[in-house]
Amino acid sequence: MPSRTKKMRGSRTHGRGKKAGRGAGLIGGHGQAGLSKTGKIHMLKYDRDHFGRHGFKRPQSVVRANSTINVSELEENMERYISMGFAAKDGDMYNINLTDAGIDKLLGNGSIGIPVKVTVSQVSAKAREKIEASGGSIAE
């Protein structure tokens, strides 16, 4: 215990007056305190949009994220798609319908070594290039 604390035992304010020793009383509060009173000029100058609501939030019924899959995942999950009925083997070519599987877009990450004919609503340029390089095709 510092000696000053010991010296001030019994004193109500410890030599600080009535308000200075209570929290952040002497400095006008912590953080954003007083923006509508003592800090109003600072708020109006540097943060005019501090109070109130701003912007527009789109309804969640309208906002929907695309469901995507990479080219490398096609080869990895081919057996699963066949068992679920979204894909079929036709000779050495695989026919896969990603639209029926609930996938909106095919992306081009990874590599594919089997020829596939893919039906999907959207496809990236890199994915199209890799599918065609492996001997497959894309139907949109």
Question: Can you offer a commentary on this structure?
Answer:
This protein has 140 residues and is an alpha/beta fold. The protein folds into two domains: 14-55, no CATH class; 68-139, Ribosomal Protein L15, Chain: K, domain 2. The protein contains five helices and seven strands; from the N terminus they run H-H-E-H-H-E-E-E-E-E-H-E. It has helices spanning 3-7, 40-46, 71-76, 78-84, 125-133; strands at 68-70, 87-90, 93-97, 105-107, 116-119, 122-123, 137-139. The strands form two sheets. A four-stranded mixed beta sheet has the order 2-3-5-7. A hairpin with a 2-residue loop joins strand 2 (87-90) and strand 3 (93-97). The longest helix is centred in the C-terminal third of the chain and has 9 residues, at 125-133. The protein is elongated, with a radius of gyration of 33 Å. The model has no long low-confidence stretch (mean pLDDT 89).
